[in-house]
Automatic annotation (TrEMBL):
Source taxon at top rank: Eukaryota
Active site: 886
RCC repeat windows: 136-194, 195-246, 247-298, 300-355
GO terms for MF: ubiquitin protein ligase activity
Start and end residues of each HECT domain: 599-918
GO biological process: one example: ubiquitin-dependent protein catabolic process
SMART domains: HECTc (SM00119)
Protein name stated in the entry: HECT domain-containing protein
Annotated InterPro entries: HECT_dom, Hect_E3_ubiquitin_ligase, RCC1-like_dom, RCC1/BLIP-II, Reg_chr_condens, Ub-ligase/GTPase-reg
UniProt keyword Repeat present: yes
Cellular component terms (Gene Ontology): cytoplasm
Length: 918
């Protein structure tokens, strides 16, 4: 049975009978016991589908003297399962899947272009239609005067006013698991599985909820509704209502008749909660042309608000109403009858009532993978149902929407929290699903081939919304269960290629950052192991996999950088590919420079050594090492002070107050030359410099290294209570320089303090020394003219330029060799006794005496060559030790006792400019 109010006709027709209980714009009964009603948000007709699949159509009056007409619609033997109508016509789906289009109210034609598309949902506006087909794709057709079709500009849409006769795919929502669509007058909406709301089309009254009145020609996410747990959308002529799982109603758009329910006639450009319905726990909503209905099944009550001039509010009057009030059901309404459904269209409202006490559920259409489906595949694949099973596998695994809608974390509604911080997936479900699929090889191969040939090819058109990106987190679990071999490598390459086609995608990288550790480890392992396989093939077989390898390494590089931002991170050594050393010939170095993470520091050092044309392979490097070390140190003591020393860290940074910036070019030139010749400099720069050389941004941690005191103040600022921050009376100024426009008059508050800290760090490392660093960088590149130095990480580059900070003196002793003497000789025993008596500074002075620099190479003192050669002469006690710096040889006279050795050695290292040999 149905209740009907608003614009209506006189008597009923055939099995649809009208029982008038009142005559003045009140609710009346329609007895139609064997029919179901088809939801139609707006338009001029409503379809009743009988038990036998036949259709009765109620065509509404127009409110201008033309009454509504109810008539049977003869479709002969066609059994109709679904009907949606708009001003321009209606779409009907038969039980066999065929689609009919009703252009007039007494004739239908076969809509052939949709007959093989398996339509599951249809929504019609005034002059446009939207349909969801079974693979999750949206199709649109009709008028596009306000962008209501959501199609991007193309040859089909040279004019905004044109009509699209044949359904076109809505590519901008491809990959989003859409579960519901709704069409308003000239605007449209789509709802995703995790509650994301997308609107497009006319927006003159703010009916898209985007905060303005600018129409949209492509679907745009209503971000203010994110995480509201939206489960249903209904569109009116120029307003929209959404329902959340908690039973809350939000409305926006035109409020000219009170249809928003906020107690005013004002338009709303943002979704606004209908406060008067907060306690009702609404279970259904429906928007008419200019009015809204809300059903509370728990109270068995219908609320209405908006235009009531045709009696569509069901309160016995013909006035507008701006707040939700109960509909006056007929006096003979039995409490045993429960309202199960409400619908609104144009100036008409309808409610379906029955004796059933079951709670109605708003169903959503989204084909997803589950355990029962997989069990059926495994059971039926080798039976007569094999062909049908294959079709189902191909349909699901060729559709990004179906895959993205699977393996959702529905525990405690977590999937409604989907954002760039959380994928909404339960990846354990995906892992278990693919492990189960892998138990039957034929099914696994069918899935693999479908993914490879169809799904991955389709991903290039998917948008970078979180729900469309889930597939990139799910597919590694499929690759994981594949057997080792060419097919596994090929699928990994295809996935890497799809990721690269996305381009820079901050949303995906944020999802990787928050990905559970074990699944992130799987993701890295797949690209690492398959890259290793390609490298091995290239070094053992005559094949060229450079294109595939660089694609894989590009993704691995992104994962490497993401790993550095993760709280629970992998060891960076897990990204190294030891086999890559075999590829690092002169012709391949440049190719691998962007992927420096795959080689360890030792491998990088080995490939970085420069050989000069015409040299015999022996480089007597002692004098050049000492020269560059002393020259670089002079920049610190130079009276022009191009560098400033920070007392709390003893690190140096560019002096921002130096006018003659050419000095910084020469400073960079010296540092570049030192790197080019594998020597060290005596300038203690912070890590921030090497980050900047490698085009990375310094952060607060880098400031903490350079000046702990300043960094501590900034960290305290971020941690202080709001009152304390206000009492600091800070503004956006640093060292008498404005960080932002009008910074002196802009106070630092609790809400902008993070911005202040970020700008402070940027000022110290970037803004204040912009010209100085640019000159230094230019000089550095001139001094080291090959790009291979870019293969280093910032920490490695600092170690190569400045030397290792680790002085493990025992390693120097362990690696020493001897000539004309042995470690057990008294002279050698005395030497090491004296050496380990030295202070730290004296030991470093000994290094300078021996090698022309006190810096330790990457890898520590175990990489230093020290040969001690005993000198036997009658005047040994009168001689000083000598060092041959080029070869790391110490000439040690055979002293008569330890005291003589101590005195002579201390004198020699203290005046090493005199006692060194080249």
């Amino acid at each position: 049975m149905f209740y009907y109010w608003g614009t209506r006709n006189g008597e009923g027709v055939d099995d649809v009978t009208e029982e008038k209980t009142t005559h003045d714009h009140s609710v009346i009964k329609i007895s139609c016991p064997k029919s179901t009603i088809q939801d139609k948000p707006i338009g001029r007709c409503l379809g009743f589908i009988g038990e036998n699949g036949h259709v009765s159509v109620l065509q509404y009056g127009d409110g201008q003297g033309n009454d509504a007409v109810m008539q049977n619609f003869n479709l002969k033997k066609d059994h109709i399962k679904l009907m949606k109508s708009g001003t321009a016509g209606a779409v009907l789906r038969k039980s066999d899947g065929e689609i009919l289009f009703m252009e007039t109210w007494n004739s239908c034609r076969l809509f052939k272009v949709l007959c093989d598309r398996q339509v599951t949902q249809v929504a019609c506006g005034n002059q446009h239609c939207i349909a969801i087909i079974r693979d999750g794709q949206l199709l649109v057709w009709g008028a596009n005067s306000h962008g209501q079709l959501g199609l991007e500009k193309s040859s089909l849409l040279e004019k905004e006013e044109c009509r699209i006769q044949s359904p076109q795919p809505l590519k901008s929502l491809y990959g989003i698991p859409v579960v519901q669509i709704s069409a308003g007058g000239d605007h449209s909406f789509a709802l995703s599985l995790s509650g994301a709301v997308f609107g497009w089309g006319k927006n003159n009254a703010g009916q898209l909820g985007l905060g303005n009145t600018t129409s949209r020609h492509t679907p745009t996410c209503v971000k203010s509704l994110n995480m509201k747990k939206t489960i249903f959308i209904s569109c009116g002529e120029e307003h929209t209502a959404i329902l959340t799982k908690g039973g809350y109603v939000f409305t926006f758009g035109s409020g000219s008749c009170g249809q928003l329910g906020h107690g005013s006639l004002r338009n709303e450009h943002h979704p606004r909660l209908v406060a008067e319905l907060m306690g009702a726990k609404v279970s259904q909503i429906a928007c008419g042309g200019h009015h809204t209905l809300a059903l509370s099944e728990s109270f068995n009550m219908i609320y209405s608000f908006g235009c009531g001039k045709q009696g569509q509010l069901g309160n016995g009057t013909m006035v507008n109403q701006a707040v939700p009030l109960p509909v006056h059901l007929p006096p003979d309404h039995s409490p045993a009858l429960k309202v199960k459904r409400v619908l609104a269209a144009g100036n008409t409202s309808i409610a379906q009532v029955c004796q059933n006490h079951e709670t109605s559920v708003i169903s959503h259409v989204c084909t997803t993978i589950d355990d029962q489906m997989i069990d059926r595949w495994l059971k039926e694949y080798d039976t007569n149902a094999c062909r049908q099973t294959k079709r189902e596998i191909r349909r699901i695994f060729s559709s990004p929407s179906c895959v993205n809608g699977s393996f959702i974390d529905e525990s405690r509604d977590k999937h409604f929290l989907t954002s760039v911080e959380y994928s909404g997936l339960d990846l354990s479900l995906a892992r278990l699903a693919f492990e189960k699929i892998a138990t039957k090889t034929k099914v696994l191969l069918e899935v693999q081939h479908t993914v490879e040939r169809e799904l991955l090819q389709a991903l290039s058109v998917c948008r970078a919304e979180v729900e469309a990106l889930r597939v990139y987190l799910i597919l590694p679990e499929l690759i994981r269960v594949l057997q080792e071999g060419h097919q596994k490598t090929q699928l990994a390459v295809y996935l890497a290629d799809a990721i690269e086609k996305l381009g820079p995608c901050d949303a995906l990288e944020k999802l990787w950052t928050r990905m559970p550790f074990s699944y992130f480890r799987t993701l890295v392992k797949i690209f690492h192991s398959e890259s290793t396989r390609l490298v091995t093939q290239m070094t053992t077989q005559p094949c060229d996999h450079w294109e595939s390898l660089t694609t894989m390494l590009s993704v691995l590089k992104r994962l490497f950088l993401v790993n550095r931002r993760r709280k629970c991170a992998l060891m960076e050594s897990q990204f190294c590919i030891t086999e890559v050393a075999d590829l690092l010939g002169n012709s391949n170095i440049e190719k691998l420079v962007p992927y420096s993470f795959v080689a360890d520091t030792e491998t990088k050092k080995n490939i970085f050594i420069v050989e000069f044309i015409g040299e015999n392979g022996v480089d007597f490097r002692g004098l050049s090492a000492e020269f560059l070390s002393l020259l670089s140190e002079a920049f610190i003591t130079w009276q022009k002070k191009p560098l400033q020393v920070f007392e709390d860290s003893q690190l140096v940074w560019f002096n921002p107050n130096i006018a003659d910036i050419t000095d910084f070019y020469y400073l960079g030139l010296v540092c570049g030359m030192a790197l080019y010749n594998c020597h060290f400099t005596n300038i203690n720069f912070p890590l921030a410099l090497f980050k900047k050389l490698l085009c990375l941004s310094p952060n607060l941690h880098d400031l903490e290294e350079l000046t702990p005191v300043e960094a501590r103040s900034l960290k305290n600022l971020l941690a202080e209570d709001e009152d304390v921050v206000d009492e600091l009376y800070l503004d956006f100024m640093v060292k008498d320089q404005e960080l932002i426009s009008n910074g002196a008059q802009t106070p630092v508050t609790k809400f902008n303090r993070q911005k202040y800290v970020d700008l402070y760090v940027d000022f110290i490392f970037n803004k204040s020394v912009k010209n100085q660093f640019e000159q230094f960088s230019a000089g550095f590149s001139e001094g080291c003219p090959i790009n291979a130095w870019k293969i280093f990480h910032p920490e490695e580059l600092r170690e190569v330029v400045y030397g290792s900070p680790l002085y493990k003196w025992e390693d120097l002793q362990k690696g020493a060799t001897y000539e004309h003497c042995s470690p057990s000789d008294e002279l050698i025993q005395n030497f090491w006794t004296v050496f380990f008596e030295f202070s730290e500074e004296q030991r470093k002075t000994f290094l300078f005496f021996m090698y022309g620099t006190d810096r330790v190479p990457a890898g520590g003192l175990s990489k230093v060559t020290l040969k001690i050669m005993q000198l036997n002469s009658p005047d040994s006690d009168d001689r000083f030790p000598e060092a041959q710096t080029c070869f790391g040889t110490l000439y040690l006279p055979k002293y008569s006792d330890i005291d003589t050795l101590r005195n002579k050695l201390i004198h020699a290292i203290s005046f090493c400019e005199v006692f060194g040999r080249a």
